[in-house]
Amino acid sequence: MANGRNSSKKKVTGRDNGGFVALPWSVLDCPAYASLSSSARSLLLEFARQFVRDNNGRLLATRAYLLKRGWKSSDVVHRAKNELIAAGFIFETVKGHRPNKASWYALTWYSLDRLPGYDHGAVESFVRSAYSMSQPLVKNASVNPRIRAQKAQIPPLIGVTNTASSLKDGTIRPIFSSTSIPHDGHHLENHLH
């Protein structure tokens, strides 16, 4: 049965010519990937696009490179890059600094290539498949403290001997005998003569 794949034509590969990005299913199916923002997922593809055989550890996310690839906002790139590092998909092998030294990165689903120029301790700190060990980022999680906050006590004013008492529902019963009206009458009723 002919399905077009085994034809005698000149090398039919079933895809367009050129290189390709290989993303293992273990990356795409892990909880950490599912929790990534869309910009972090897009930036991960930019890192994967740069990988060729022996440069894992020298991948870039410079403004000049990403601007050519359609990235316009440095803030979006910075947030997405930090998200990918925190989730364990990329690892920073060289910390960049001004004026002209770029940071280098490695994809964690590949082995780190032993290249000269890494920061001290980078090779020892690299964890292969770190994304599978990291906890997924929780987006918009509600704050739910385990221990309930205790009701604050209101201290008495100086000179007051009675203490404030609270009712069952937490409201405070006034214990002062004076009112907020001045002793010589209401302030709006007093006219200056």
Choose one word for the global shape.
elongated
CATH overall fold name of the domain at 25-132: Arc Repressor Mutant, subunit A
The span between the termini is: 113 Å
Rg measurement, Å: 32 Å
Strand order of the largest sheet: 1-2
Which helices and strands, and how do they pair?
Layout: H1 25-28, H2 31-34, H3 38-50, H4 63-68, H5 74-87, E1 90-94, E2 104-107, H6 122-125, E3 165-166, E4 172-173
Antiparallel strand pairs: 1-2, 3-4
Helix pairs in contact: 3-5
Descriptive labels:
193 residues, alpha+beta, Arc Repressor Mutant, subunit A, two-stranded antiparallel ribbon, 6 helices, 23% helix, elongated
Please outline what is shown here:
The protein is α+β, with helices and mostly antiparallel strands. Helix content is 23%, strand content 7%.
Describe this structure in words.
- By secondary structure, the chain is α+β, with helices and mostly antiparallel strands.
- Helices cover 23% and strands 7% of the residues.
- It has 6 helices and 4 strands, in the order αααααββαββ.
- The strands form 2 sheets. A two-stranded antiparallel ribbon has the order 1-2. Strands 3-4 form a two-stranded antiparallel sheet.
- Helix 3 crosses helix 5 (74-87).
